[in-house]
Amino acid sequence: MTEVDVVVAHSERATLRVGDTFLKIDSDQERLDVEAEAMATAPVPTPQILWRKPHVLALAALPGTALGRLGTPSPASPAAWAAAGAVVRTLHDAPLPARPGQDVDAIRSHLDAECEWLVGTGVLPADLVARNRRVAETALRPSTPVFVHGDLQITHVFVAEDEVTGVLDWSEAAQGDAHYDLATLTLGHAEQLEHLLAGYGDGIDVDVVRAWWSVRSLRAARWLIEHGFDPNTPGAEFDVLRAAR
């Protein structure tokens, strides 16, 4: 009998797998609409949409395996990472989507609020938060917007035989900073950035990528904790913050 596998689940959304079908259930219908539109327009491999219902999107499983997981070494080869970089560059060179991203002032405001929460609740030491807030400022500068995935986690890029077979989870797709996608993909995997950029090409400031590691980790911590995830697991967000210089 085929079993139902809960891939991820929290109060906002859940993803289930039944055989070769993934069911994405989201309380926010707009996120599913954004995801479907992005997959239809992005010039990179994406899962096949099998059907859509209110608050549910059914997708076909992708061949291959994810580039890796946060907190464990990536099993993918340097060539696979380079292939991922080439795919991301194709996306970033595509015509802009209609959906605007957050502006720098909004990101800065949210970041400052999250830093205040982290220190005020004692979740992280004040000096660690302050150091990463200084690092983060490098990312908060004007940039030419590109078509970004918006949540390009390492588990969202699938590869087989050193080729990208598809990219998952497009609900945050919008206009944004190319460095943010590259930072999200290499979060906790700094050793893979060189390989990723070998496929991506020029035009990237590595210091800005590193700064986005701090921005993403600081901004995500409270959400992760409140939704039952642990950013303090080895190799995850808090280790990224501790490694920042």
TrEMBL record:
Domain Aminoglycoside phosphotransferase: 37-205
Superkingdom, natural source: Bacteria
Protein's name according to its UniProt entry: Phosphotransferase
Source organism phylogeny: Bacteria, Bacillati, Actinomycetota, Actinomycetes, Micrococcales
